[in-house]
Specification:
Elements (H helix, E strand, L loop, with lengths): L5 E3 L2 E14 L38 H13 L7 E2 L2 E4 L9 E4 L9 E6 L9 E13 L3 E3 L8 E3 L6 E7 L6 H18 L11 E10 L9 E6 L2 H20 L7 E6 L4 E7 L9 E2 L6 E2 L2 H9 L5 H10 L4 H8 L2 H12 L4 H19 L10 H12 L5 H14 L3 H8 L7 H14 L1 H8 L6 H11 L6 H17 L1
Parallel strand pairs: 12-13
Antiparallel strand pairs: 1-2, 2-10, 2-11, 3-16, 4-5, 4-15, 6-7, 7-10, 8-9, 11-12, 13-14
Helix pairs in contact: 1-4, 2-3, 5-6, 6-8, 7-9, 9-10, 12-14, 12-15, 14-15
Length: 493
């Protein structure tokens, strides 16, 4: 799919990328305690005795966290492992009170799956690629060190300690910044449709570790580096580009790539070394003695599958089957809130093609202009359906509908009320239109003669003058019909 290459002094280099995405599970509490997980709380106000690793405290798995991980696996058609196990990953750091993280290394809850991506938004079916997902496992997050609160000391906030994460590990199937960005956007969209993660990268509830290596085309995989905790799609794409270029420069200068953990500096658009990369044996993994293995029964799995919503690809296919253009269907299904809004508009009885045209142009344009998202749209699907109904029945012309829509955005009033209050109804009264056209023809007798002499392009002039004289309220179809008759009358005589 990708022909992305880095041009080095010794020729072309391929880029190989794999992502480890940490997605915070949407749930009522942390993975092994009942503490809250709301973003933005005061430091250390959402910490249970379990999260703080007080002596004698034992973890109890949160059923909802397990359920959300299983639903996510099902959404990417992955293998669901009925038997899985928690391990202890041992390391010592100030924001990890237990001295270990409870994770799943050897027996994850979700096995192999796949995510389909496209790089051509205008034609989503033209250029596709299937990216393998190696596994999804659940684990607990660590706390957070704060270095800017005191001149000589670091503070620890344990609010995130014990928060449930899904680690979604891709296979090394990504071969360019564009593919990596498309994969991350698609994964985020699926998580938000499923409801298992809010996908808010700015708040840290979804972040990516970016594994990058380079090789000459056809060679074995090169040594990879891992750039940790990248929190935007744009930054992830920048990491792939910059880290790959750095590795090519090192190799072409005769150096070796060190397997290491790196950090991304967005201000300088560069990665820098943080520490040498640990291997699994460095963490001394072993089964957590406080937790029994997870055993999922068929009834639980059936309930998880039944709870899944219509997912982005299925929804896009349904929209296209309704006659909506592929590009519009892609735009409408990219974000779950937009898709829900649009479904409500269709449920109100609006014809699909007209609904898609208006939503992607008028509504999205207005929301972008005003800096609002669709969840805060001043116009509801029911109000939009009323407006589009007035266009369909001839009450409003296209230009009048734009005026009505602007008033709706400002006031929140319905379309019919705006039309009534502002007198914006379109007129199809042929008598009134004929009178205006007669005045326009009388005021432009020379152009009438030119038109009748063969200058057909002047017809648009007469349409424009008539619409202007009637304040844009004349039915354009009726104006066209009457004009053709009146402009041609004297030709026959």
């Amino acid at each position: 799919m990708s022909d992305y290459r880095i041009q080095g002094e010794t020729g072309e280099w391929e880029v190989v990328v794999g992502l480890e995405v940490h997605a915070q599970v949407t749930s009522n509490a942390k993975l092994f305690s009942g503490a809250a997980t709301a973003f933005g709380a005061e430091p250390n106000t959402q910490v249970s005795l379990v999260d703080a690793a007080m002596p004698g405290m034992l973890p109890v798995p949160n059923r909802e966290c397990i359920r959300q991980a299983v639903r996510t696996g099902m959404a990417i058609e992955a293998q669901i492992n009925k038997w899985s196990r928690f391990d202890r990953k041992n390391y010592f750091y100030a924001d990890l009170p237990q001295g270990y993280q409870i994770s799943q290394l050897y027996h994850p809850i979700v096995g192999e799956g796949a995510i389909d991506i496209s790089l051509d938004e205008k034609n989503p079916d033209a250029a596709g690629k299937r990216i393998g997902v190696e596994r999804i496992h659940v684990e607990q997050d660590a706390g957070k060190l704060m270095h800017d609160q005191h001149p000589t000391q670091s503070y620890v906030d344990l609010n995130r300690s014990g928060v449930a994460l899904m680690e979604i590990v891709s296979k090394p199937d990504l071969a360019s910044p564009a593919e990596t960005g498309a994969y991350l956007r698609k994964l985020r969209s699926i998580l938000r449709y499923v409801g298992s993660c809010d996908g808010n990268m700015e708040e840290g509830s979804m972040r990516a570790d970016v594994n990058v290596s380079v090789r000459k085309p056809g060679d074995e995989l090169g040594t990879r580096t891992e750039t940790k905790n990248v929190n935007s799609v744009r930054f992830v794409m920048a990491v792939v580009e910059q880290e790959a270029k750095r590795q090519v420069e090192v190799l072409e200068a005769g150096g070796k790539i060190q397997q290491e953990t790196r950090l991304y500096d967005p201000d300088r658009n560069e990665t820098r070394s943080m520490r040498s990369k640990e291997d699994a044996h460095d963490y001394r993994y072993f089964p957590d003695p406080d937790l029994l293995p997870l055993v999922l029964d068929d009834a639980f799995l059936a309930e998880c599958r039944a709870s899944l919503p219509e997912l982005p690809d299925a929804k896009r296919a349904r929209y296209e089957a309704l006659g909506i253009a592929p590009y519009q269907a892609t735009v409408l299904t990219a974000e779950v809130e937009a898709a829900r809004w649009f479904d409500a508009l269709l449920d109100a009885g609006v014809k699909p093609a007209a609904a898609a045209n208006w939503t992607t142009s008028e509504l999205f344009g207005a929301l972008n202009r005003t800096g609002k998202d669709i969840e805060n749209s001043p116009v509801s699907p029911a109000q939009a359906a009323e407006l589009l109904g007035l266009i369909a029945d001839g009450t409003l012309s296209g230009s009048l509908a734009k005026q009505v829509f602007e008033v709706m955005l400002e006031t929140g009033d319905g379309a019919a009320k705006v039309v009534e209050d502002r007198g914006l109804k379109q007129t199809s009264d042929t008598g009134a239109i004929e009178a205006v056209i007669a005045d326009v023809m009388a005021a432009n007798a020379d152009k009438v003669a030119d038109y009748r002499g063969g200058k057909d392009k002047l017809f648009g002039f007469f349409v424009g003058q008539t619409m202007k004289a009637m304040g844009g309220k004349a039915n354009p179809a009726v104006v066209n019909e009457v004009l053709k008759g009146m402009l041609g009358e004297s030709v026959a005589s």
